[in-house]
Design brief:
Layout (H helix, E strand, L loop, with lengths): L1 E7 L7 H7 L2 H6 L2 E2 L7 H11 L8 H9 L8 E5 L20 H11 L4 E8 L2 H10 L6 H5 L9 H11 L4 E6 L3 H13 L12 H6 L2 H13 L5 H15 L2 H4 L10 H19 L4 E4 L2
Parallel strand pairs: 1-3, 1-4, 2-3, 4-5, 5-6
Helix pairs in contact: 1-9, 5-8, 9-12, 11-12
Length: 292
């Protein structure tokens, strides 16, 4: 069985991608793909992993989990799961002075729970210049210095996290993309997580665009796509990008960073480091990098 798991990151699409995939349930069910309600597995998987503490599960653990996740008598060829806080909660991303320290442990535990299955992990990443402040806002009153746990933001690299995921679960396929590109590649992300062909029609392909574009722009975009069907994904990205340039809601797409000591020079440095890091990730073995 294929198990596709959207493991985060925090403060990226926040379950929007999983919701878009569920809009395709009638078609997916006919292909043997199940997208269970997150309430059926998030706490179950978290507590099972915590109980194991890095040890080996009992031989029947995998079957017990699958029976709990699926309806009685239900079978599947592909199981689509998701949890934006699977690696850790937003408040703990810098815990112990290491960016996403638990990434390897969580990936290794996931592979151990489903040793007979083909695991795919999906990870949306975000520029630390906006990612760190967004996660800190969810840290429930902790001071920013305490939240950062002594980490210099310039040392934070997503490629380190990706490398630990790959090392911990080398047999698992890993798909990575930038949250900043999500609106442009949303249909491709829906297809990838659902296990559909690259040219398969999907529902929900404009869900994220609808959230960040003014209503009149979204309506005109749909009319344009209906009268001028894109020949391929690249052409659709160009069309969507053009409409976003004109109709994007500034209050949604523009992020204002206001942190003590964080000036424009630091934000520029973090962005440059992030962009260079993306090139390293795209070149990593065993990583499928989806870019706009």
């Amino acid at each position: 069985m294929d198990i596709a798991f959207h493991i985060g990151a925090n403060c990226t699409d926040e379950d929007r991608l999983l919701r878009s995939v569920t809009k395709n349930l009638p078609n997916l069910a006919g292909r043997g793909t199940r997208v269970p309600n997150p309430a059926r597995y998030r706490r179950l998987l978290r507590e099972t992993i915590q109980h194991l503490r890095g040890g080996s599960p009992e031989p029947d653990t995998r079957d017990v989990l699958i029976d709990a996740i699926l309806d009685h008598g239900e079978t599947t060829e592909r199981l689509v799961l998701g949890n934006p806080a699977f690696i850790c909660t937003p408040a703990r991303i810098c815990e112990a002075g290491c960016f996403h320290e638990l990434a390897g442990f969580k990936a290794r535990s996931l592979a151990a729970l489903f040793p007979e299955d083909r695991i795919e992990m999906f990870l949306g990443i975000r520029n630390p210049a906006s990612f760190l402040p967004a996660c800190w806002e969810q840290a429930r009153g902790r001071g920013f210095d305490e939240f950062m746990a002594g980490l210099d933001p310039r040392t934070i690299l997503w490629s380190d996290v990706v490398a630990r995921l790959r090392q911990a679960a080398p047999e698992a396929r890993l798909t990575v993309w930038c949250d900043e590109d999500s609106a442009l590649i949303w249909p491709e992300l829906v297809r990838a997580l659902a296990g559909l062909d690259e040219d398969a029609p999907v529902e929900g392909g404009l869900d994220l665009v609808d959230e960040i574009m003014r209503p009149e722009g979204a309506a005109r975009l749909r009319d344009y796509l209906a009268s001028h069907p894109p020949a391929n994904a690249a052409q659709q990205r160009r069309v969507v990008s053009a409409f976003l340039d004109k109709y994007a809601r500034a209050e949604v797409v523009e992020t204002e960073i206001d942190l003590p000591g964080w000036d424009t020079a630091l934000l520029a440095d973090l962005t440059a480091i992030y962009e260079a890091d993306l090139q390293r990730i795209a070149a990593m073995e065993g990583v499928r990098f989806l870019a706009a």
